[in-house]
Design brief:
With 166 residues, the chain is α/β, with parallel strands linked by helices. It has 7 helices and 6 strands, in the order ββααβαβααββαα. α2 (33-46) crosses α6, α2 (33-46) crosses α7 and α6 (132-138) packs antiparallel against α7 (140-159).
Length: 166
């Protein structure tokens, strides 16, 4: 199981969909290629290291053959995610990709249309962004979009006075 890791007092919580092969082997979220890209973009856009934020997934176990988690798998892990939200109490959840965004929004969304927007959901204040795996496949344009969205998140947190990373 891969529960998550990072600063439990961070104002930002990153949530992906499920662990991949490397994450499953190391019992740590986002340590494969997607994780390396996410780590780099967090540093470039926010000036933070991965240990300065909290990173987790909707589903805590790797689905067989790296497929998308099924609805029953999402439901079975939802209590863990809610407990993490309650314990960490982030000001902003950054949902990585469509599946994580759907969990927070309660409906299907087109990430290409809503990325970078901050929306209040039943669970938390959420900013959807592209999943780093998508950015690895799509190249620099998608990576720039993630970077710009993260810069927007930082600006929002500074504006409301909760950015404490200087």
């Amino acid at each position: 199981m891969v529960f998550g890791e990072g600063d439990l007092s961070s104002p930002i919580l990153f949530v992906g969909e499920a662990p991949g092969a490397q994450e499953d082997l190391q019992s740590r979220p986002f340590v494969g290629r997607s994780g390396k890209l996410l780590e780099r973009l967090i540093f470039e856009a926010l000036g933070l290291n991965r240990g300065d934020v909290y990173i987790t997934n909707v589903v805590k176990c790797r689905p067989p053959e790296n497929r998308l988690p099924k609805p029953d798998e999402v439901r079975s892990c939802s209590g863990y995610l809610k407990d993490q939200l309650n314990f960490i109490s982030p000001f902003l959840v950054i949902s990585l990709g469509s599946l994580a965004t759907k969990v927070f929004m309660g409906r299907d969304v087109q990430i290409t249309k809503c990325h970078g927007e901050i929306v209040q959901s039943e669970l938390a204040l959420v900013m959807p962004i592209f999943h780093p795996a998508y950015a690895l496949r799509r190249g620099l344009v998608a990576q720039d979009a993630i970077r710009n969205d993260l810069i927007g998140a930082k600006g929002y947190l500074q504006e409301i006075g909760v950015w404490n990373f200087e």
